[in-house]
Amino acid sequence: MPYSAPRVLIIPGLHDSGPAHWQTWLQGQYRDARRVTQRDPSKPQLERWAERIQRTLEVAATSDGQGEWLAVAHSFGCLALARHLAEQPDSPIREALFVAPAEPDKFGIAEALPHHRLSRRSRLLASSNDPWMSAASAARWAHRWGASYSNLGAVGHINAEAGFGPLPAAKSWVEAARARHAAEQRPRHAEFREWAFAV
């Protein structure tokens, strides 16, 4: 079976991510990337948003076949992703990148989120002056979820309004995650060639 790299799943926050947003830029870097499109991206409903992630993955598996995913979420999309991972232990999402999560307390949903280590490798990127979540709160959620944590400095909500068209850190994360996956698969794929060489 040919090697298949994990695909990129874009999970926007409130009001989706417009054409100038780094998530749209990132999606354009990978032709097989998919975006989770909420029925009403102006209404932050945790359970419904998490269900939409699951539905998007199911539709992709039906049309494109099974495979693993790298989820890249922003703002309220981070909360929906965390909920999805907690509810779906068999999710095909391999790794998760949380960028500038929204503060759950602003929506009264903190208790509906996982307060334990997630079952997937993850990373959380935050800002020291994000109006949607303080750096201290971001660090606490990263610790709860077992995510590696990086504060990018005074860069607002890490969105288009804050000047983030491209976000090279997100693409670097995707490439590193794909490299980790390839390294894990390599022994299986290399085995025949190595034995043939040894004969």
From TrEMBL:
Single annotated GO MF = hydrolase activity
Is the keyword Translocase assigned to this protein?
Answer: no
Has keyword Mitochondrion?
Answer: no
Q: Which InterPro entries match?
A: AB_hydrolase_fold (IPR029058), RBBP9/YdeN (IPR010662)
SUPFAM superfamilies to which the protein is assigned, alphabetical: alpha/beta-Hydrolases (SSF53474)
Write down a Pfam family by its short name: Ser_hydrolase
UniProt keywords, alphabetically = Hydrolase
Q: Under what name is this protein listed?
A: Alpha/beta hydrolase family esterase
Q: Which organism is it from?
A: Roseateles asaccharophilus
